Amino acid sequence: MTTSKPQEVDPAVSTELARLRDSIDNIDAAVVHMLAERFKCTQQVGHLKAAHQLPPADPSREAHQIARLRRLAESAKLDPAFAEKLLTFIIAEVIRHHERIADDAGGDTAEPADTADTGE
């Protein structure tokens, strides 16, 4: 068994690594906050759909959003397949929330709902 000594890292490299990691941490925080805002909007969509007995999923809207996100990813030099996987995951979660809202409403259409639609 070989043991390796901890490698000494150039202080300039350590400084740059810390700077980049701080940026990554800030971006991760922004992503979480943006997702939280998105889900607040999609919850409102779910209530609106439930109030009007609309289906939780909207396949044509979903396909449109996936195509749109793929184009955005390409222009941003991000792998469109990755962007599609991410949005597909988010859409599945939104639909799950919409189904739960519809089940909880149990046909009760008296609840007021906002009309925001964010693309489920």
Number of helices: 3
The termini sit apart by 54 Å
General shape? elongated
Cα-atom radius of gyration: 21 Å
**Topology as a string of helices (H) and strands (E):** HHH
Low-confidence stretches: 108-118
Overall average pLDDT? 89
Strand content: under 5%
Number of strands: 0
Q: Determine the structural class based on helices, strands and strand pairing.
A: mainly alpha
User: What proportion of the residues is helical, as a percent range?
Assistant: over 70%
Largest sheet data? none
Task: Summarize the structure in words.
With 120 residues, the protein is mostly helical. The chain contains 3 helices and no strands. The C terminus is likely disordered.
Helix-strand layout with pairing:
Layout (H helix, E strand, L loop, with lengths): L10 H41 L7 H17 L4 H26 L15
Brief account:
The chain has helices at 11-51, 59-75, 80-105. The protein has 120 residues and is mainly α.
